[in-house]
């Protein structure tokens, strides 16, 4: 579990997956939450192998203090949608790429939800963005976290600006290849 912002406070984000083999992908969500010091829990809650526990997890998530759920699944990828069907909390689905179809099956399964049962879906293997989206959801009701999110966005801007500066210098010096020089 990540550092807890307030002593005695429990996790506010649940990170669940269909199998422990999904952890190498889903760990990026945990790392993103760690960057913002957001407390989370991690578990395996398989929609197909443990459906009763999966339903109980979703039904009781809000009363346990969770504010959002990040659910990663591969293949048929029913976990995010099934959790969304039994919880009032926002569910963020992460399509986990597997050996076949490179996660496209998971993506289509997670993104094609019926009306009234929304799942926010990130890119295939996009667990980091899932963690960042959970942080943004929480920041909408937490001024301190909102400030940290704004700082994070400014850091991204600064990094991109610096990359542009280095690229322009490289091209202007002739080291950029291509030699067309249209950017001058």
Automatic annotation (TrEMBL):
Ligand binding (substrate): 19, 22, 49
Role: Catalyzes the conversion of N5-carboxyaminoimidazole ribonucleotide (N5-CAIR) to 4-carboxy-5-aminoimidazole ribonucleotide (CAIR).
Catalytic activity field: 5-carboxyamino-1-(5-phospho-D-ribosyl)imidazole + H(+) = 5-amino-1-(5-phospho-D-ribosyl)imidazole-4-carboxylate
NCBIfam families in UniProt: purE (TIGR01162)
Family affiliation: Belongs to the AIR carboxylase family. Class I subfamily.
Gene Ontology terms: biological process: 'de novo' IMP biosynthetic process
Record's keyword annotation contains Ion transport: no
This protein's pathway: Purine metabolism; IMP biosynthesis via de novo pathway; 5-amino-1-(5-phospho-D-ribosyl)imidazole-4-carboxylate from 5-amino-1-(5-phospho-D-ribosyl)imidazole (N5-CAIR route): step 2/2
Protein name: N5-carboxyaminoimidazole ribonucleotide mutase
EC number: 5.4.99.18
Source organism: Streptomyces lacrimifluminis
Entries under InterPro entries matching the protein: PurE_ClassI, PurE_dom, PurE_prokaryotes
GO molecular function, one term: 5-(carboxyamino)imidazole ribonucleotide mutase activity
SMART domains linked: AIRC
